[in-house]
Design brief:
- The structure holds 2 protein chains of 2 kinds.
- Chain A has 9 helices and 2 strands.
- Chain A has a two-stranded antiparallel sheet.
- In chain A, helix 3 runs antiparallel to helix 4, helix 3 packs across helix 5 and helix 7 runs antiparallel to helix 8.
- Chain A starts with a helix and ends in an 11-residue tail after the last helix.
- Chain A is mainly α.
- In chain B, 31% of the residues lie in helices and 35% in strands.
- In chain B, 30% of the residues are buried.
- Classes of the chains: A mainly alpha, B alpha+beta.
- The interface between A and B is large, with 50 and 52 residues.
């Protein structure tokens, strides 16, 4: 029974990957086909009205992929009889889900379709790594993870991570566009990007929106650590890096709100803060020592 | 001839004042915050004594010179090091110096009324003006008050302000961080934390001598130890038969306060410690204790009982040492216990499952000087065999006996041991309260927009608004306001 659910989950994840691949191609086609050569000056211009249909397909594929991914994550949870957050394979598929979910939510409010190309490839890479390298058979939780706090702490951390990385992607797009502007020549994709100012504001808003949630994730982790390990803070490598991420984003928010950093400097700081999160996820989970070694590798 | 440059005298008071201002500036606080983040990094990469003392000694063994040098900079003790403490104490002071004055300032500002309407409204953001139709001022007052703006009215003009919560939240957040730090310091001064390894069946009385390791805060009084007694009745570990991973640990204990005739049954699990007043008792680790009987050559019992062995891998292959210092000459056994025995190519005996399905005890016996009187502290799990010679090697099943010229050892069976951690952490509730207030303050400060709206009514109606920190949403609010005033809504 549980094994069937695990197979079912795997099929759903593979299907999601196929659909995300289609979404990626649709996004790529949208960007490429928008290039039009005008007859008079034989100059390239972009006309996104021509590719509106493809763009809609791309987003629709992204939504379908997301639904499949959600189903895959849920089936994985059902197969193990618990929330699907017991090892790194499960963290990764849930993280990819949070990342593309954050994109789709943000898409309702802002014109972010240009970002779809990056989001779909990032989700594909994450799922690919998860399936190829991190996969572990579905199994029950170790005793330390058997707690309601698993749901609270890990869900808050995963959602925060998804939004942080989205903000990071936008900050990276800012720096890319900034470099393009300095050269004076824009690639087809760069022409699709909104203005520098919009990118700058967007990544700030995402961080400001999710920073309290990250603070909550850290505090919830501390409460859980108190009941599982007898101390709420022990400078375990994972805790240390969660703290470093918190400090880095706190510095980012301060730099913007009180010192008035904008643009390039702020984008670099945002990238730095996001990379501390990634480092925590990859390095500490796989090579780190300490109590948060649940990667199952 | 020397030319002296005359500097204005600032004196020691001036210097102090200058230093204080530098320390409590926002820029310094920010730099200290970033420094704290940076300073935390080495401790996550280099093994730390508080978390992994074995790894630290390994480090010392592998590169003694480098380690000695690193130790001088407290790199194996980062979070208790002088330089780490220096950074967070400075940050703490800087935070207080930065936040307290702002709190008083804000307290006054929050009770003050918004400044009067400026003369030239057309210089402001989102300015608009049109022919007065009448009653605009009344409509404006009603609308602004309904939206909970603070309102000042003078000479046919209204000045309104909203969003004080932004600064209130901001200050609350920072004050809460101070509370968290206070909670942590309180715990380290008045708290205690100790560990004890107990075999199933043993009894623990909460006195300092019962502990294997015990740390007090500087201001902790020994008499503050809660008086209680715990008997370890039963320990059950369940493992997954496919992955060998643990699924559940359950510890049954009998617990009594002062009165030893009134024991109650209690259950301790990994995520549910036993709480006694301010003290909590946690189940932290477990392992196997082989039960052995050591006899001398005449058959007299020299030592008998369970000896805790230290687990080495997920299948609980455990190592340990059985020391018989009272024998003449001294005898020691370097042992390895495998709960479910299997042979591996090259590695000798291994364990293939953490439950004791087919236990074996592998022993090498040593005769000579155990070195216990040398004054150098020794691990209970290891033997210094430098002054000993080996007399034999044997693998035993339960019930079997290994006989060597000087005596014999019988592997009677095994017992399980648990490691109890006993903690009194009086500051944690302050830290938790600080954490909760910090989040609330953060939400208030990040999601509140502070803005002013003005209206002046003469022949024409003039409205204008200004948002602090260029907060978004002002345009929408102003168009609604204008629509109300014009009677379009």
């Amino acid at each position: 029974m549980s094994r069937n659910w695990a197979f079912f989950s795997n099929y759903l994840i593979y299907s999601a990957m196929a659909v995300y691949t289609l979404s990626f191609f649709a996004h790529a086609v949208e960007t490429a086909w928008a290039v039009r050569v005008t007859t008079e000056e034989s100059k390239q211009v972009l006309d996104y009205k021509r590719t509106e249909k493809v763009a809609r397909i791309a987003t629709a594929m992204m939504i379908l992929g997301f639904i499949l991914l959600v189903a895959g994550v849920i089936a994985r949870g059902v197969s193990a009889g618990r929330v699907p957050w017991g090892n790194m394979y499960e963290f990764s598929i849930t993280g990819a889900m949070a990342f593309s979910g954050a994109y789709l939510v943000a898409l309702r409010k802002y014109d972010l379709r240009w970002l779809g190309l990056l989001v779909s490839i990032a989700v594909l890479l994450t799922l690919g790594t998860a399936v190829a390298v991190l996969y572990r058979p579905s199994a029950p939780l170790v005793p330390a993870l058997k707690s309601t706090w698993l749901i609270i702490h890990v869900s808050a951390a995963i959602i925060s991570g998804g939004v942080f990385l989205l903000a990071n992607t936008i900050a990276a797009a800012y720096l890319y566009l900034d470099a393009m502007e300095a050269k004076g020549e824009r690639t087809a994709w760069a022409k699709r990007l909104p203005s520098l100012e919009v990118l700058d504001q967007l990544s700030y808003r995402l961080v400001a929106f999710v920073f309290p949630l990250w603070t909550f994730a850290v505090i919830a982790g501390a409460i859980w650590a108190e009941s599982a390990w007898g101390r709420y803070w022990g400078w375990d490598p994972k805790e240390t890096w969660a703290f470093i991420t918190w400090v880095a984003y706190a510095a980012y928010l301060h730099a913007r709100v009180t010192v008035g950093w904008r643009g390039r400097k702020a984008a670099w700081l945002c990238l730095f803060a996001g990379s501390t999160f990634l480092f925590n996820y990859v390095y500490v989970n796989i090579w780190g020592t300490g109590k948060h070694t649940y990667s199952g590798l | 001839m020397s030319q002296e440059i005359e500097l204005p005298e600032i004196g020691s008071v001036g210097l102090l004042r200058y230093g204080w201002r530098q320390l409590t500036s926002m820029r310094t606080a920010l730099i200290l915050l970033l420094l704290l983040g940076l300073a935390a990094i080495p401790g996550s990469i280099i093994p730390q004594r508080t978390q992994n003392p074995m790894k630290v000694s390994e480090y010392f063994k592998n590169s003694p010179d480098l380690s000695k040098w690193m130790d001088k900079f407290s790199l194996f003790d980062v979070y208790g090091s002088p330089w780490f403490s220096a950074i967070y104490i400075l940050l703490f002071i800087s935070l207080i110096g930065c936040v307290l004055p702002r709190t008083f300032e804000h307290f006054h500002a929050a009770r003050a009324l918004p400044p009067l309407t400026p003369k030239n409204l057309d210089r402001m953001e989102s300015y608009s003006s049109w022919e007065a139709q009448g009653h605009e001022l009344d409509k404006a007052r009603t609308w602004l008050k309904a939206k909970r703006f603070r309102v000042v009215e003078k000479d046919g003009a209204i000045s309104a302000e909203k969003g004080y919560m932004r600064e209130t939240g901001n200050l609350l957040f920072h004050l809460a961080l101070i509370l968290v730090l206070l909670g942590i310091s309180f715990s380290s001064l008045f708290g205690m934390r100790g560990e004890a390894i107990l075999n199933v069946g043993e009894r623990f009385v909460n006195t300092p001598t019962s502990y294997d390791s015990l740390q007090y805060g500087k201001l902790y009084k020994e008499g503050n130890l809660q008086s209680f007694t715990i008997t370890i009745d039963k320990f059950v570990a369940k493992y997954n038969v496919e992955t060998n991973a643990p699924e559940d640990y359950t510890l049954d204990v009998s617990f009594a306060h002062d009165d030893l005739t009134k024991f109650t049954k209690q259950v301790i699990k990994v995520n549910s410690p036993l709480t006694v007043g301010n003290t909590k008792i946690y189940l932290q680790a477990n392992g196997y204790s082989p039960v052995v009987t050591v006899r001398d050559s005449r058959g007299n019992v020299a030592m008998q009982g369970p000896v805790p062995f230290l687990p080495q891998d997920a299948n609980l292959r455990s190592i340990g040492a059985i020391k018989v210092p009272d024998a003449e000459p001294q005898i020691g056994f370097v042992g390895s216990f495998v709960p479910t025995y299997a042979r591996s190519n090259g590695n000798g005996a291994i364990s293939v499952f953490p439950e004791a399905l087919d236990p074996r005890l592998l022993l090498s016996a040593w005769i000579g000087d155990l070195g216990l009187d040398s004054g150098v502290p020794q691990s209970v799990y290891r033997i210094d065999t430098s002054k000993m010679k080996t007399v034999g090697l044997k693998s035993l099943k339960p019930g079997e006996t290994f006989t060597y010229p000087q005596g014999s050892i019988t592997f009677e069976g095994y017992q399980q041991w648990v490691n109890l951690q006993i903690v009194d952490d009086p500051g944690k509730n302050f830290a938790l309260l600080g954490g909760i207030v910090a989040i609330l303050g953060l939400l208030a400060s990040l999601f509140t927009r502070r803005r002013r709206i003005w209206i002046r009514v003469g022949d024409r109606v003039e409205v204008a608004a200004l948002a602090k920190n260029a907060a978004p949403g002002l345009e929408v609010e102003m168009s609604e306001f204008v629509a109300i005033l014009k009677g379009e809504k």
